[in-house]
Protein 1
Amino acid sequence: MQTNPISPETLASSVIAVPPLARNADFSLSHQQNARIIRHLEAGGVTTLLYGGNAVLAHISQGDYARLLALLVETAADSSLVIPSVGPTYGVMMDQAVLLRDFMFPTVMVLPTRDGVTSDGVATGVRRFVEALGRPAVLYIKYDGYIEVDAVRRLVDDKLLSGVKYAIERDDPLEDQYLKRLVDAVGSQQIVSGMGEQPAAAHMRHFQLAGFTSGCVCVAPRLSTQMLRALQADDYDRAEQIRQTFRPLEDLRNAKHPIRVLHAAVALADVAQTGPLLPLLSEVDPNDIPQIQAVARQLLEVDG
């Protein structure tokens, strides 16, 4: 596992995969099936793995969290960067900082929440977490009003952030005044697009963001990597062609539930058996399984 400090070059070096977390029938972590997901990604050229929302870390117990950290260190290749997440509540973040001190992850992402937050409060919480851990954090901006641009700039100026995952949904990703102000304030090379392949082309082409995160990369890592390289080479026609290939699965995720559909898709494509979803989530509707399976297997076939 990579332990070097995060740089803009690191953020641009790979699609940032956001995998589901495979569990056994009794909800315990599956070492074998999580290793299958990691090996599938690494074989497809993905060297950065971010465990957060798709892994349902917002609901993980402290005992499972410590076991997960050990599993990731043991399983990831020496060339892979692994980024676990903390939170989303302040108390959980600080408890998890204690566990993280025993591991050499170079950065950790702070999960966002809509509830009980103010901009200054979020900035203070991130600052205290980073001070407790002794390593910079990835800031995940998912909701309008979560944190003001000036507060982000202060965190960057104080070298408390290794990057920003930007994932506020817009009807038109090109019409985003907050993102424009954020880029102007902290620069584009510390920010990655955080909503998969669909807005990534717009974000990288027009806002010059460093890269993008993806859940569907867990099905088609080669294809997603090709899209990243096409965008970096200004080959926008090729990037658009690949983006459209991902769209059927992304549309299903948006229509049904992004975490639940991805969790099912990875299993239905036979990448790995992901097992049950951790409560407070539940499995996809059985009536949706045939469609998810068809779309996921088609995407895997195109991936080659």
Protein 2
Amino acid sequence: MPPISSRFKLGIVRDVLNAAGEPSFGTRALEVLKDNPELEWEYTPELENEITPELAARYDALYVNSSRVTARTVARDDRRLRIVARHGVGYDSVDVPALTAKGIALTNTPLAIRRPVAVATLTLMFALAGRLFAKDRITRSARWSERNDLMGMGLVGRTLGIVGGGGIGQELLRVSAPFGLRRLVADPYAKDEALRALDARRVPLEQLMREADFIVVACLLNEETHHLIGAAQLALMKPTAYFINVARGPIVDEAALIDALRAGRIAGAGLDVFEQEPADPANPLLRMENVIVTPHALAWTDECFHAIASSGLQGVADFSLGRRPAHLVNPETWRDR
């Protein structure tokens, strides 16, 4: 590896910028970068779907949103990159073993995203339960007489099933507490005592799929959870139940979900994520009236993005000063320093 210059250089990938060229998370979050006067930063010259070896040779740190970081990114001998900071909690777009093998730290922002995603989940649940979009359509087309046929589903006494009992799942348990829902969690790694403290119960995935009126996918995407929800699991759902995914698209076999919705085996779905993103315009999910779709951005608010960027950029600032970042995905890279 070539010698590192005296100044620590951060590249912020351009997909965090809005149409006006300003950071979508606001400018206040950038204040944390002033902790180290030897740290300089800039937005990357181009928007890259995959971080190139050239960028890895240009920067000590990269702050990435949706861009992929691959083994190719860090393969060259002129690599300068020492830390990648993910703008968010998921890191399925990053080749973690490749970074770890090169001693490159990876951070994410697990705390900042929890409340916004939990609130976004409630937004989808309320819209589905109230049949919001169907009622919007009949109102706009002067079909008020059809409102008796669009009865919503009350929440009291219904069952909320959460696939994934980690930070987001537990936050969803907290924010859903006032609505009179029975709450179930499917997660082999969740602690029973933590779930009991939130008035929830851990059950096998099959039981959750059978009993829940609202099923929410809120787990990380990895080899274990890829297509965790497929045709067999969807077939267990009640015909009156709704399916919500706010995690990652490939956790669900999308073709099986489309089949279940087309056949009327489930009542509907709320999807903030897809197997392919951006979603193919020909995707049948985009044309189904019992499906609410958003572009992997329902949780995006000024509050959310400021918290994410403040946390993520603080990790970079800490690293540049020789301090251990708060949220290391691959802590072995720090122990090896």
Protein 3
Amino acid sequence: MQISPIFRPLRATLAIVIAAPLLCFSAANAAGDTVVATVGSHKITESELDAKIKPEMSALESKIYDLKHQALESMADEYLIEQAAKKANLSVPDYLKKEMEGKSTKVTEADAHKYYDQRKGPGTPPFDQIKSRLIAALQNQSDQEEREKVLASLRKDEPLKVLIKAPRIEVASAGHPSVGPANAPVTVVEFSDFQCPFCKRVEPSLKQVRDKYGDKVRLVYMDFPLPMHNHALDAAKAGRCAAEQGKFWPYHDAMFADQSKLSPEDLKNLAKTLGLDTSKFNTCFDQAKYEAGVRADMNQGKALGIDGTPAFFINGRMLVGAQPVESFDQMIDEELANNPSAGKQARN
């Protein structure tokens, strides 16, 4: 269970203070042709500078929003628990002790040993060397889970509504493979790489999202093959050739199911296995019919600040990495609660 922000220090407060002037600088671009540097007789303008750092600034704005959101959650939890303690005529520690009494599990040495045996690997210190620290850590986790239950109960009566606006990035995703209705209130645009292990790892989360939200969510796939993966570009081109015959998603699922078979020969065999017209597929693939389109996705992704996969834009809000389903749920729930008719920002 996720530990409530009230029981961990506010993170990176200094980062907000340091980064804020950078955001102001980026926004204050009324005089975009203002010269900000010279190299001999060559002039560099503010608009050129802004274009150069746009990807980094977009990512930074998203991180600052996340920090502010976490701080608001922490402040709200502090307020709720302080008010509950005040109503009970108790201090916060005494209130928590009373609410948690008899509910927090006492972690035994046997519990810790079982946990250790399930997770130990090469290089793990002997159990006796870390026993006391492991028991303390597991006990703290158990206590935190019970504290979170107390807060969850308090939040039901006075839910938090965050009013700050999340930064949104416009993504040109028209014409790309998608599942879900075009008028869905939430659009999830994914930049992915068929040879990336983390992209494969996030697939179950995306399936859970589709199962949970149904027609409320539309998923759009875009290509971002990484140079380090020797068959990623081939796989991206093959996916588009499969899409030409209306078989993108079965081909997509098959490539992620076995990432060890992405050579050109494997990709052609897969087309045959899935019942595609192999003559058309092979011609499409060999002529690199859609490579320019793949590279256009890559260029757009770089311009948006993407430097790895998977990367997502949920109604234009960036989410990076092989995230658990809870991360998607949180953002999607916020979008549905704050703007049920949203979904246009990332959809062209």
